[in-house]
Amino acid sequence: MSISKLEFGNKSNDLYMDKTIQEIEEEIVDEFSFFESWQDKYEYIIELGKKLKGYPEDKQTGEYKVKGCQSSVWLVTDETDGRIAFKADSDSTIVKGLIALLIRVLNNRTPDEILNAKLDFIGKTGLQQHLAQTRANGLAAMIKQMKMYALAYKAKQQI
Question: Which candidate in 21, 28, 52, 69 is catalytic?
Answer without folding.
Answer: 69
